[in-house]
């Protein structure tokens, strides 16, 4: 297997993962234009985001197991074609229902594509130094994808049309498909395995209920009957899923995947990191556009320094040190630096504060978060037998997606409540209503950002206590589970 061919495979895998990650944010900046064009109500517009995250987060475990059973390359290529078709359908939407349906289809195929991409990466790069470099690139994409999506959304919306935020996926997916066809060879299929149908129904149902419940909480409130019912149902279904997995002949999520201490630490770390991160991206976007009055393009460009910091953190810090130092010595300091960035951002006011607060906060956030995320990805997928790599990859993606859904709903609710309280406390005769509204909005963002700060500190604490490996594991170190030979490349 030629080294250059393996690195071209990384390009293909990374391109597909970038498309999946940035699609969670690329439509955010375009949403006002799409809402006006398709006559969406304020209550319904959230479904442009929720339809994607609901299908993606709810079906990831099933998608990961399909990747193990049908073969990673096959699943990867089907995911690419399906994602392209769903994106084209969404771009051509003539009404809100058509757009919501297309976004849900994108989520379905993303749930196939994301675990297949990560498991391909984990089984292709097994030599420690190469693995560190490959995961550095992948970690930079996972971390920077959301910021890149905001930049791309601003460019496309301002100079073309909101529909291009969806159409742009078509050429990306087709290029990645052609690359996968030419470079990746069949491999990793286990014909003796079977799909755990009861586990699939319980696991996917539980995840769908949780993601839907947290998404609805942002608009309905946490005490709403539907929200409470969904969250309780999600917990009950996932508890039943856990019990069933201990009895199933071929479980959807092998217990070996979540019994490993290092992987559990990585999954929990990623969960709480994304709880803090997704809401902050949304708040910064609204702060720059709604409070400071910046254009979509200028807002997108404002995220470039953070994207650059993410690339440096993943490829120049984590990738170089991962094979030399214990993982928690990268994760914990990285998260503390990121939390420090949030503490700076949480002190902005209604006056322009990009250079004094937002920029340094973004740089610290990008540098620290990407260092921690890249290391967590390596921990989550190391020492996994090839037959279970899809399940491990799906669990990592699920932690990221559910964390993002929880964070968006929780932090939005906190921000809205703080804003309303501030308005009530400071309203009165002679008060400039526009200024008061801006001050209340920023106050709400600041309060929620402090909660995000707490989530990152909790993630750092979990990593410091749970992750205790001397070095990040690799597939060769799977312990008593001897990896099966897998030819992922020709």
Q: Quick one: biggest sheet?
A: none
How many distinct beta strands?
Answer: 0
Helical proportion?
Answer: over 70%
Q: Which percent range describes the beta-strand content? A: under 5%
Low-confidence stretches: 476-490
End-to-end Cα distance: 7 Å
- Radius of gyration, in angstroms, nearest whole number: 22 Å
SSE topology string: HHHHHHHHHHHHHHHHHH
Quaternary state reads single chain
**Category by helix and strand content:** mainly alpha
Q: Helical region count?
A: 18
Global morphology: globular
Mean pLDDT: 80
Describe it.
The chain has 18 helices and no strands. The protein is mostly helical.
Features:
mainly alpha; 18 helices; disordered C terminus
What's the topology here?
Layout: H1 3-22, H2 26-38, H3 47-70, H4 72-91, H5 96-124, H6 128-159, H7 164-167, H8 169-183, H9 197-220, H10 225-245, H11 255-259, H12 261-291, H13 296-302, H14 304-321, H15 328-345, H16 354-381, H17 389-426, H18 433-466
Helix pairs in contact: 1-5, 1-6, 1-8, 2-6, 3-4, 3-5, 3-9, 3-17, 4-5, 4-8, 5-17, 6-13, 6-14, 6-16, 9-10, 9-17, 12-16, 12-17, 12-18, 14-16, 15-16, 15-18, 17-18
Summarize this structure briefly:
With 490 residues, the chain is mostly helical.
């Amino acid at each position: 297997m030629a080294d250059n061919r393996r690195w071209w495979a990384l390009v293909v895998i990374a391109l597909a993962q970038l498309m999946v990650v940035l699609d969670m944010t690329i439509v955010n900046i375009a949403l006002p234009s799409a809402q006006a064009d398709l006559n969406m109500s304020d209550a319904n517009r959230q479904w442009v985001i929720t339809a994607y995250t609901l299908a993606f987060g709810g079906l990831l475990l099933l998608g990961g197991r399909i990747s193990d059973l049908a073969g990673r390359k096959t699943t990867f290529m089907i995911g690419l074609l399906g994602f392209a078709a769903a994106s084209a359908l969404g771009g051509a939407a003539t009404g809100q229902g058509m757009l919501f349906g297309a976004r849900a289809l994108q989520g379905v195929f993303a749930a196939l594509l994301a675990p297949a991409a990560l498991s391909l990466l984990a089984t292709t790069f097994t030599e420690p130094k190469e693995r560190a470099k490959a995961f550095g690139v992948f970690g930079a994409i996972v971390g920077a994808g959301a910021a890149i999506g905001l930049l791309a959304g601003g460019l496309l919306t301002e100079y073309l049309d909101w529909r291009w935020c969806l159409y742009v996926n078509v050429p990306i997916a087709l290029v990645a498909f052609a690359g996968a066809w030419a470079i990746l060879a069949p491999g990793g299929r286990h014909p003796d395995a079977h799909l755990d149908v009861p586990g699939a129904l319980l696991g996917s149902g539980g995840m769908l209920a949780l993601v839907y419940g947290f998404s609805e909480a942002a608009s309905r409130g946490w005490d709403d009957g539907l929200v409470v019912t969904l969250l309780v149902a999600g917990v009950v279904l996932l508890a039943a899923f856990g019990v069933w997995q201990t009895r199933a002949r071929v479980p959807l999520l092998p217990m070996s995947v979540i019994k490993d201490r290092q992987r559990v630490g990585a999954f929990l770390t990623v969960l709480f990191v994304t709880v803090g991160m997704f809401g902050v991206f949304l708040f910064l976007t609204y702060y720059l556009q709604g409070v400071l009055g910046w254009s979509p393009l200028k807002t997108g460009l404002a995220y470039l320094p953070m994207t650059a910091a993410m690339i440096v953190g993943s490829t120049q810090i984590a990738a170089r040190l991962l094979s030399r130092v214990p993982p928690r010595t990268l994760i914990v300091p990285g998260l503390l630096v990121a939390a420090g960035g949030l503490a700076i951002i949480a002190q902005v006011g209604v006056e322009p504060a990009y250079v004094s607060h937002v920029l340094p906060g973004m740089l610290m956030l990008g540098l620290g978060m990407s260092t921690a995320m890249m290391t967590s990805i390596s921990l989550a997928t190391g020492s996994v037998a090839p037959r279970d790599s899809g399940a491990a990859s799906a669990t990592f993606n699920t932690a990221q997606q559910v964390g993002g859904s929880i964070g968006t709903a929780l932090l939005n609710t906190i921000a809205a409540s703080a804003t309303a309280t501030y308005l009530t406390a400071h309203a009165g005769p002679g008060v400039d209503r526009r200024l008061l509204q801006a001050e209340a909005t920023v106050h709400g963002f600041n309060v929620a950002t402090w909660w995000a700060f707490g989530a990152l500190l909790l993630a750092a604490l979990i990593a410091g206590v749970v992750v205790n490996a001397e070095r990040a594991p690799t597939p060769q170190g799977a312990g008593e589970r001897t990896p099966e030979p897998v030819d992922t490349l020709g």
